[in-house]
């Protein structure tokens, strides 16, 4: 028996060694640049490219921008270093941003982060814009400028601190007192960086500025103007035969800013609210009916909005009008100008026009800037489609990859997107994809965008750039 | 023989194992059988027949006690679809035990015995940060069956047997990350931990040995539902704001431990050589879905249950093995098995990253004198490479798991001690 153990113990020890070697391996997927060269990458665009989110540009957002994620993945197929105009650690909160401070009755309370910002220079020469600490690096490769429209790219002084107003994010990237337009700045960067690959995601603000103001601010960029300037930018970027990717403009109706307050449900709720008995005599008197009369059949509350239409500035809302996210803190709050709460009025069948108008929500409709009415919504959708046609034509002309953000976000808005067991939707806060401003993605959203871009690049250039695990990037940060 | 104390030892050692037969079934009962590809239904080798074919127990010549132990070393590689990192398991070793004791008159027609074994189990600990962490980070399934058995030889050639299979101990521990992020940047985490209720099933078999050179057997082990009621739910690392959505403290779940029907043939061309084949049919098709019920919210107001599709299919295992008596004292064994996965394409989940399995086994016995012998076995099992894509998951409605490629191999050395009297 002893000898048996003496003989088998070495065998068992040997077995232990064999076990160490039994770890199975899977061949690494091939990572290859295909017909594109990713050694020098330049990113052009607006807030989305800069890494903007939560209504602000700050260090964490910059570090998780889609160009930063792309560059990191490009490095696996021969990509080089990628420099971003990062905020200093001591000013990491950049422009400041929105954050959730708590919850009341299930709704998030949203506050502003104001500490450690880069707004160190006081008010600008226009008396309102807060310029940011200048970026002094000369090696910038992420040229994303929040707020910029294609319509703005040839405007001289767009980034100059001047009394007529300026873009502080562009001003920050330029040397002090620089008058150059954005396209000139890009031209200089192209000359210096000599990019072999670029991404260009411009165009969103050419519809979004209009849409997010309920149609009150910046007009929709005319197609002709957009076409000229967009092609000019693409020509600058492809001057050295660089390959690249362009992205289309998503529908505004796929982002939470326009979808979180459900118009149809709000209307239904308002319509179903019974008229308080105490109010009946007042209304009866206003209608000139004998005291004690009942209200005309069909009298009910309605939701009223102010539209941009000159002929009928106030009307009852329909399900085709989009209520913007901030409207939810206005609807049904006390009005300064009407006995009824904001947005609420009475609909009285058969009443004479002046009386109906007096009792309807004409004194307290939802203001124009909180409503993208049906006419404006249609105009935005039409213009978005027209501008996307221009973008795709430019890509076709230069043989570029296209990330059809419009089609992608339409799908996501309809079905959500599940990745590695986690469901992401376009819902506000809980959907993981959109930050607290309801328009810009979260780091998770940007990672998913980067993956979609990688798919488009791989398919166009025969490359095999690996994707990232979006779940490693956060959604909305909860306290 | 101090049977009582041996039993206590067997019962006190928690058993569990990385799965080593299709799904989370484990066929590691007898160390001799382990060395022969897991055959045993058509043989009357030793007391472990109580597991493979209770009908054969009456034909086992010696009375005796056998205690066996295995150590399972599971190693796995995983790559997420489109992912770059090769994920490996945090290595763990589990050591399933078995114990078989048979008694009865040496020349009588009946034998009785008691068996303790672990027919189902699984333990996997995935790598930190692996892509499937929102499906699963850790699983530990354990079961211990105690089976009092009686077997009767109707004629010299034919015997029958039946055992009452008692699920004496069952435990489930499942952990995964919750897709929330707290102020420290951590994902939430949930742990489900519960004990199964005791349940009773049966294991029955018929053994027929028409000649010195041939034996056949059939056996059937019934299905038992392992039911956990009021298991503990523990959430951690949740952000304050998400806590109202995750209020559950208790869960109920039922996991079917499916019925297994086996047929086996033994051929003894010479006195020294034994060859055997087995076919097992496991009714995995009973495993339709993994349904959890909770006593409060799990992921939102009013969400108090979860369901995850399984739709397993019945699966066959083919086993082939043999032993050869080199000398009076030494017997060597070899065998192989092919195990069809019950998991359909697009349904592979991290709890059982299953695929068809190929196994090769070796074994040796040493008989030290009249009463005592030692068995040693080693099994090498390769769970073949298997991939599933996100598109397949979407088509099947199984997006609660992760798309990618798994490849697993398991090495299971085992040792058994026999005392016959």
From TrEMBL, chain A:
Concerning PROSITE patterns, the annotation shows: PROKAR_LIPOPROTEIN
- Name assigned to this protein: G-D-S-L family lipolytic protein
Q: Which SUPFAM superfamilies match?
A: SGNH hydrolase
Q: Which Pfam families match?
A: Lipase_GDSL
- The residues that cross the membrane are none
Lineage, top-rank taxon, reads Bacteria
Q: Which PANTHER family match?
A: SGNH HYDROLASE-TYPE ESTERASE DOMAIN-CONTAINING PROTEIN, THIOESTERASE 1/PROTEASE 1/LYSOPHOSPHOLIPASE L1
Organism field: Hymenobacter guriensis
UniProtKB/TrEMBL annotation, chain B:
State a single Pfam family of this protein.
Toluene_X
> Which of UniProt's keywords are assigned here?
Cell outer membrane, Membrane, Signal, Transmembrane, Transmembrane beta strand
Q: What is its main location?
A: membrane
Q: Where is the signal peptide?
A: 1-21
Q: Does the keyword Acyltransferase apply?
A: no
Keyword match Cell division = no
Q: Give the record's membrane topology.
A: Multi-pass membrane protein
- Highest taxon of the lineage: Bacteria
Checking Gene3D superfamilies in the record gives: Outer membrane protein transport protein (OMPP1/FadL/TodX)
Q: Where in the cell is it found?
A: Cell outer membrane
Record family assignment:
Belongs to the OmpP1/FadL family.
Would you tell me the protein name for this molecule? Outer membrane protein transport protein
Organism of derivation? Hymenobacter guriensis
List the top taxonomic levels of the source: Bacteria, Pseudomonadati, Bacteroidota, Cytophagia, Cytophagales
């Amino acid at each position: 028996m002893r000898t048996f153990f003496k003989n088998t113990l070495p065998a068992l020890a040997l077995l232990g060694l064999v076990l160490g070697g039994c770890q199975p391996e899977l061949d690494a997927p091939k990572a290859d640049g295909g017909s594109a060269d990713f050694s020098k990458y330049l990113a052009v665009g607006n807030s989305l490219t800069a890494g903007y989110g939560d209504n602000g540009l700050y260090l964490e957002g910059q570090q998780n921008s889609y160009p930063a994620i792309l560059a990191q993945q490009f490095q696996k197929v021969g990509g080089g270093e990628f420099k971003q105009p990062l905020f200093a650690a001591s000013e990491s909160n950049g422009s400041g941003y929105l954050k959730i401070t708590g919850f009341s009755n299930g709704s998030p309370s949203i506050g502003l982060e104001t500490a450690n910002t880069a707004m160190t220079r006081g008010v600008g020469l226009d008396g309102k814009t807060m310029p940011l600490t200048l970026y002094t690096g000369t090696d910038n490769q992420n040229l994303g400028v929040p707020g910029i429209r294609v319509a703005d790219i040839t405007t001289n002084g767009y980034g100059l601190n001047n009394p007529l107003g300026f873009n502080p994010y562009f001003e920050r990237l330029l040397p002090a007192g620089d008058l150059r337009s954005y396209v000139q700045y890009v031209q200089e960067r192209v000359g210096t960086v000599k990019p072999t690959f670029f991404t260009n995601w411009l165009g969103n603000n050419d519809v979004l500025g209009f849409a997010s103001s309920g149609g009150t601010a910046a007009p929709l960029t005319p197609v002709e103007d957009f076409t000229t300037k967009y092609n000019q930018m693409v020509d600058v970027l492809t001057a050295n035969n660089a390959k690249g990717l362009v992205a289309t403009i998503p529908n505004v109706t796929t982002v939470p800013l326009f979808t979180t307050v459900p118009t149809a449900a709000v209307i239904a709720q308002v319509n179903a609210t019974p008229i308080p008995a105490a109010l009946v005599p007042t209304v009866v008197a206003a209608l000139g009916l004998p005291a004690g009369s009942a209200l005309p059949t069909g009298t009910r509350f309605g939701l009223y909005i102010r539209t941009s239409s000159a002929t009928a500035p106030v009307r009852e809302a329909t399900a085709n009008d989009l209520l913007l996210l901030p409207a939810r803190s206005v609807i049904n709050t006390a009005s300064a100008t009407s006995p009824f709460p904001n947005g609420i009025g009475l609909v009285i069948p058969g009443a004479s026009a002046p009386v109906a108008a007096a009792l309807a929500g004409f004194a307290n409709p939802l203001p124009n800037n909180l409503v993208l009415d049906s006419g404006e919504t249609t105009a935005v959708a039409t213009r978005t489609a027209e501008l996307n046609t221009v973008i795709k034509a430019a890509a076709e002309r230069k043989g570029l990859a296209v990330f059809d953000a419009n089609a992608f976000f339409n799908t996501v808005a309809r079905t959500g997107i599940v990745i590695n067991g986690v469901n992401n939707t376009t819902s506000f806060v809980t959907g993981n994809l959109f930050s607290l401003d309801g328009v810009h993605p979260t780091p998770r959203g940007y990672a998913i965008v980067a993956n979609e871009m990688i798919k488009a690049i791989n398919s166009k250039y025969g490359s095999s750039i690996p994707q990232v695990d979006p779940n490693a990037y956060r959604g909305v940060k909860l306290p | 023989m101090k049977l009582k104390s041996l039993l206590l030892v067997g019962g006190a050692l928690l058993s569990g194992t990385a799965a080593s037969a299709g799904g989370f079934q484990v066929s590691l009962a007898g160390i001799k059988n382990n060395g022969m590809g897991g055959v045993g239904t058509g043989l009357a080798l030793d007391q472990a027949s109580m597991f493979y074919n209770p009908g054969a127990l009456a034909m086992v010549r010696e009375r005796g006690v056998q205690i066996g132990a295995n150590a399972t070393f599971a190693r796995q590689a995983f790559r997420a679809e489109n992912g770059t990192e090769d994920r490996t398991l945090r290595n763990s070793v589990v050591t399933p035990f078995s114990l078989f004791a048979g008694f009865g008159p040496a020349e009588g027609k009946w034998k009785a015995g008691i068996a303790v074994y672990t027919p189902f189990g699984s333990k996997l600990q995935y790598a930190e940060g692996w892509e499937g962490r929102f499906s699963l980070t850790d699983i530990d399934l354990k079961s211990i069956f105690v089976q009092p058995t009686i077997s009767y030889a109707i004629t010299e050639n034919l015997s029958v047997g039946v055992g009452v299979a008692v699920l004496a101990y069952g435990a489930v521990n499942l952990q995964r990350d919750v897709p929330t992020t707290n102020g420290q940047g951590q994902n939430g985490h949930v742990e489900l931990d519960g004990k199964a209720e005791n349940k009773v099933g049966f294991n029955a078999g018929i053994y027929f040995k028409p000649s010195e050179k041939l034996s056949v057997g059939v056996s059937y082990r019934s299905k038992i539902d392992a039911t956990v009621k009021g298991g503990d739910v523990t959430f951690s690392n949740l952000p304050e704001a998400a806590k109202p959505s995750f209020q559950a403290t208790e869960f109920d779940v039922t996991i079917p431990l499916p019925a297994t029907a086996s047929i086996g043939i033994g051929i003894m061309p010479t006195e020294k050589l034994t060859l055997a084949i087995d076919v097992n049919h496991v009714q995995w098709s009973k495993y339709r879905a993994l349904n959890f019920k909770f006593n409060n919210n799990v992921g939102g107001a009013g969400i108090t249950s979860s369901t995850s599709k399984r739709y397993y299919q019945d699966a066959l295992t083919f086993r082939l093995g043999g032993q050869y008596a080199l000398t009076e004292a030494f017997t060597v064994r070899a065998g192989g098995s092919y195990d069809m996965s019950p998991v359909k394409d697009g349904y592979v989940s991290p709890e059982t990253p299953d695929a068809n399995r190929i196994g090769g086994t070796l074994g040796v016995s040493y008989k030290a004198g009249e009463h005592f012998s030692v068995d040693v076995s080693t099994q090498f099992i390769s769970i073949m490479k298997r991939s599933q894509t996100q598109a397949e998951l979407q088509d099947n409605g199984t997006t609660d798991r992760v798309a990618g490629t798994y490849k697993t191999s398991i090495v299971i050395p085992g040792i058994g001690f026999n005392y016959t009297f």
